[in-house]
Design brief:
Elements lengths: L1 H17 L18 E5 H5 L4 E7 L4 E15 L3 E14 L7 E15 L9 E19 L4 E20 L5 E23 L1
Antiparallel strand pairs: 1-2, 1-8, 2-3, 3-4, 4-5, 5-6, 6-7, 7-8
Length: 196
Amino acid sequence: MKKLLTILLLLTLTTPVLAKRTDTPHWDGHHRVDRTHLKFNAPFWLLGMPNASVEVPVHRIVTLNGEVLYSPWKSVFGGNRFQMLQVSPEVRVYPWGAFRKLYVGFYTSYHRFKMTKWNYLNQGKYQDGNGLSAGFTVGFQVPFSERWSMDVYVSGGWQHSWYRGYVTATGEQYAPSNKSGEWLPYKAGIAFGYAL
């Protein structure tokens, strides 16, 4: 499992960087749209959960985005656990040109977690497992200058998890093997980007 996680993490971070690029700069009237953008999701960082991404244009209206989210929290909101590592590659389509205005995206995600699922909140239990998800993103990107921009987005889709359940206080296993699948609003953000 560690090898799979390492491979997915490397693919997510390197695919946008290694994507085919054009050598000719493209301008949309305000900024170059052929630059790689490094982004950080401000609300998650403020909550102590590092969330960063790399977005690279592969066509005039298409980009690849690789995102990583890490949550280190062993206890939040009354003892509920929220430790997670999520790796998400995404394809985004911008009708008005890369990094401009409205976009829609399709993402997949792998996540490794030790967390209290929403239907076990405040019951003294947590789940330890892995999951996959896929869904769609709707976002809006606003450039501030030639290099800085803001990206506001929400995503939702299908999430499927395989996990074991444990009692928080004792570590006793209450569910030897379980799985679940849900349609969920999956991620949201206000990311600030810097074009290299």
